[in-house]
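Good morning N.,

You mentioned wanting to compare the apo and holo forms, so I went ahead and generated the holo version with 2-phosphoglycolic acid. This is what I fed in:
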Amino acid sequence: MHITFRQLKVFEAVAHHLSYTRAAESLHMTQPAASMQVKQLESQLELPLFEQLGKKIYLTEAGEELLHYSSAIFGQLEELEEVLEGMRGLNRGRLRIAVASTINYFAPRVLAGFNRRYPNITLSLEVTNREMLMRMLEANEKDIVLMGQPPESLDLDHEPFMENPLVMIAPPEHPLAGEKKIPIVRLEQEAFVMREPGSGTRLALERYFQEHELTLKTGMEMTRNEAIKLAVRSGMGLSLVSTHSIELELETGRLVVLDVEGFPLMRHWYIVHRKDKRMTPAARAFMTYLLTEAQ
Ligand code: PGA
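and this is what came out, ligand included:
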């Protein structure tokens, strides 16, 4: 097979845009030149990569296969580039990090510290929920992910770096505030403000109720910890949150932690990466920094 990176790049752009015109624009080339590259590729492979139905073009089965492999090839090339960067010294590396939304309460502090030590490593940070983090790991999009309990379904290396106590919160005027050793069954009478499906915190709450064969009365659903805290504060229900997200509210007395039997639920935060991912020196430096300094 004599295919070139250039052909693959053009093919990827066309597959991404499903339009020769827009693909050509994105690569700063003319439309006929782009379509010529794809034609040459098709004739090399002796299979059509796109088919035209009406005005639209679609990937053929061979096109889908090629897209899968070309993404992997370009992913590997990027990784090679970073490894070589690293060999030239930790002076120019790049590090793509993604963290669970709750971790974002302290992630910026950690990144700032790391940045002071390695000012030439360019950091990018994405904040999202557990499910999206799992997808990113699957798609090999990030160097390092910081999250709660990592999924067993993926081949991952993970190491706990910090405790993550989960607690029940209520507004200070709630009848249960100040009560000691509240039996867990008592919580069946309360409504809960929930994080969105896909959130690890939500999963922990659902699992806990299931394990204790309790019925969870769910109320409003919200995608942000900040919104959850406001909703609880306004009496819309109780919620389960990480203590890392409520430091300020506890200090100012806007929220209280209920003394429920069996709580806090002790969880951990993990530093996670794919087992098959070649760790760049920048990624290794970050892991070492997190596991030693950031404590
Ligand atoms: P999340 O984070 O609730 O924002 O998904 C917690 C976790 O990953 O366990």
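The longest strand covers residues 156-170.

Happy to go through it together on a call whenever suits you.

Best,
F.
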